[in-house]
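writing this on my phone so excuse typos. first protein, seq and then structure
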Amino acid sequence: MVLHQAQKRRLRKLLNNMGGFSYILIFAVLIVGAVVWGLKRKKTVSVSDFWQEREKEYSEKRILSSFSRYLGGHARFENTTEGLLFLMSKSLWFENFEKGANIFGFAFPFEKVIFRIPLSRIGQTKTIPEKELISQGILHPNMNVRRVNRRPEYLSVSYIDEWGREK
């Protein structure tokens, strides 16, 4: 099929205009998706209610808590994950939380990690510099792209597990 020059120009102009329209259409679909996703999100719990629930559930008082990254060492949990490290009156706890689906609706596989180390079983704690963890191959140099603190603290906890082995 042979098109004349005028027909080719009209077709090219139509395709160029469709390009702009398609960007607007994609943007509108993303906005609608984000609004629907926002409406489906679970209700949030206040921080004070969260800690009241934990204190009641564990029968312990919270002393301090912090965001943390679990790197490994516990017998039941292999993967690195982020969550809360909190010191209670009788034990040290770590718990992670599911992040949920992202704006595009994709949810990554999630393994719940929660463990408790009684304070009576903790032998030694020490802070480890980030450079040392990188040199030992425990931490990848590019792992901390999304960091809150420029020089994070890494805590090593030695304890006796439930089978009597030192960890």
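second protein below, same order as before
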Amino acid sequence: MGGDGGDERHWREWTRTCQTTRHAEKRQSAGPEGPIRREHKLSDAMDTARAAELALRELISSWRAAKQQFDANTMPFDFDPLSLDFPALTLQCLQPPPTLFSSTQHPTSTSWSVQCPGQREFEALKSFFEDEFQTWKISCVTANTDAMDELTYPTSNGPYRDKRDVVRKVEKSADHLEKQVNEHLESAYAVWESLPPQRQNELWILELARGVGRKHKEAEKMKEQQQKLQQENANLKSQIDQLNRLQQPREFKLSPQEPSRSTRSSSRMPTNRG
């Protein structure tokens, strides 16, 4: 019995020794690979971070360039109000009356009338330009000050002094343009009021006809653009179909082969109904 107990004790010690040795070998074999793998992962993470940083810098540069392209000397409209007379300004800036397609038409404070324009349209145009220039000034100042914030370093005095200079310059340019438009509106309305009613009626009908002609040209231009887009869309679809066919496996392109003789003969053999 004592011998059996000693053998069992020796067996347990030998088992523990083997297990300890195997664990040590595993640690030694895994030891050099662990840091290498961590170095590879760290290198990959650093490469990804550098690529993301470069992409972010490129995006920020494009954003700053777009901000700097905001010119305070440009018009806040897609037309030149200084080249239009009073009837043209009325049709261009004011909305059509909401009751235009009803049996009885009546204008609103922001629309033109089917009758010849007068004092009411003049006041509506002044309100229109006042609101548009106010919105435009805010947009100009915001865009330019944001660009200054992005392009300057946060020193103690420099950026704030430069920012005030930018704001004053933008506001001065906007005020100058607004003054020109208001003076042009005043003179255009004075010329319009000096005309006899019959001549006003003729010019108003002519301006309405010109407005219809301009809308027709715009519709034709949009139709041409739509046709070009549809053609480009069809070309892109055909190119995609060609690429898909080129990427198909070779066996899909081959015509289906006829079954072999052995297959045909086996299919013709009568079945054993036993």
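DSSP finds seven helices and no strands in the chain. thats all i got for now
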